[in-house]
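Input chain follows. Return structure tokens only.
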Amino acid sequence: MMKLTIVRHAAAIERTVGGSEERRYLTPEGREFFRKTARTMLKKGARPDLILTSPLLRAVQTADILAETLEYAGPLQAVDELSPGFDLPSFRRLVATYHGAGDLVLVGHEPDLSTLIATLLTLPAGFTFRKGGAVRLKLDPADPQGTAAFKWMAVGGKLITSREEAFAR
């Protein structure tokens, strides 16, 4: 079984006309909010073997805050698969490539991550993944259906352990 934590990057500066999507960076409020999320994850015992992140700046900055808070000693790996457009086949390739990581963190973007989580947890109504939030799942990488079990959600200083509360509309 694999422990999987899916993290949506924290709040970043707004898009600007002619501005580079790749260079949008975290706001001070986004950084502070995600530090709270990361501390909540730490209290829950999160100890990743590997942190993979989208190469976009706001995701890399979020992954860096997480690594610092969790005292993660491994490398942060930016992978193109986690760029906007990340989908279930990309997820399956990542899990197959990094199957040796018993505790994997993925840092990426919306709407890709909420779609993935809704698919893995078979949430018919989907859900909205808050910026700077984290969802912890447990899954069997060998399961061709790719279904997962919900463990918890961290949103700032709040830890949600009830699936019903986490995905209420």
